[in-house]
Amino acid sequence: MEKEIYNETNCFGGEIFNNDNILEYSIPTKILNKYAKIPTKGSEKAAGFDLYAAIDRPVSIPPHSTVKIPTGLSFELPNGTFAGIFPRSGIATKRGL
Fold it and tell me: Can you give the pTM of this predicted structure?
């Protein structure tokens, strides 16, 4: 039987380089469904984290359309911060993908 971890709080984080200081951070994250995956960094030098779709089957997005894709996650962000979601490539932005 698969372990259900819904609403279990996990964390992800890393380091921020600020002038000569290295600041470590951790973002409390709740997993809301069994398809959710904690964000990861594509490389050590990546500026942001990769999010994953928390879906059980493929989703088709018609041209020039917008569809909400769930992450299955809930984040507790520190005061004074925000989380932005951006396309992975310039072509996605330029062509409305």
Answer: 0.69
